């Protein structure tokens, strides 16, 4: 087991382990709830709800609510349904919400927790690579709105993140691989030694060796927490966590979510590295390093025939636009990112064409 304290200012523990046996003790350390509502989805609920409930025991009422699994549930309708479920069991501020599942569950349950009765405590039990290494910490919660991803939400931290890495065993391979893109991102923007580790340990990580996964998750979470610690509300430094996302989000939308988030982020990271190379920020060999790392983890499948004009339109309407400018995260070295808001349409087009040519 490993333990990390996220956020020095308002700390919450991140427990990394390989079963659920310490769950109750970990909750007791941070809360003393009168009742618990476990929010999950139909897929994860089927796999882990019974075990988690058993671990929680019978001392207090434990309710559950499962919504239909998938990004299509990430909208305000699901939020209202959960408010209704909470009201039906008279949940008040002395209650606790548990998010049991991947990124969509964490984002939805966290948003409910941030807004129900102006905020009640919640904890995260992330069950996917994305959730364990990225979305369960940092406090971003919310839902999609109309066509816009994560358009409505809040910053609201959990009281605890309890990660059982064995839950990854039931994750489809495509999702496992896709989620790893966020881990690679943390290495590329923040930690060259982690980049080296990821190359060295790739076989063990892909085989889901417990020790390697726990070590990887620990380092990944630490990198993210260090960034969030400095800039929780994404006014400056935190923007680097969006490396690969400006183009990645556009691709996600353009593929009608047929491509997974991490798959798009991987293409986006190579495109951003290409722009960085074009500007002379990094050497050609560093661009190849980014590609090799993604390929080592089976990312960068052949790139589809996406319409460049539509992609550009999505990018130009990026929700992170400020004062009319889109922020881009570029690389200055492996393990070092910078924020630029002067990337031109031509640079983006060339980067898309580069990935189209390289990923065949
Ligand atoms: O935590 C952050 O900050 C991130 O940007 C992490 C991203 O990997 C994650 O996809 C996040 O949900 C993106 O948020 P958004 O604000 O760009 O929608
Ligand atoms: Zn992401």
Describe the structure.
This protein is α/β, with parallel strands linked by helices and 360 residues long. Helix content is 48%, strand content 18%. The chain has 14 helices and 11 strands. It has helices at 23-30, 42-56, 76-88, 103-115, 129-135, 173-190, 192-200, 202-206, 210-230, 245-254, 261-278, 284-296, 308-316, 345-358; strands at residues 2-6, 12-17, 36-41, 62-67, 96-101, 122-126, 140-145, 148-155, 160-164, 328-333, 336-340. The strands form 3 sheets. Strands 1-2-9-6-5-3-4 form a 7-stranded mixed sheet, with helices on both faces. A two-stranded antiparallel ribbon has the order 7-8. The longest helix has 21 residues, at 210-230. The termini are far apart. 47% of the residues are buried. The mean pLDDT is 95. It binds the ligand O=C(O)C(=O)C[C@@H](O)[C@H](O)[C@H](O)COP(=O)(O)O and zinc ion. Zinc ion binds next to helix 11. Pathway: Metabolic intermediate biosynthesis; chorismate biosynthesis; chorismate from D-erythrose 4-phosphate and phosphoenolpyruvate: step 2/7. Its cofactor is NAD(+); Zn(2+); Co(2+). Catalyzes the conversion of 3-deoxy-D-arabino-heptulosonate 7-phosphate (DAHP) to dehydroquinate (DHQ).
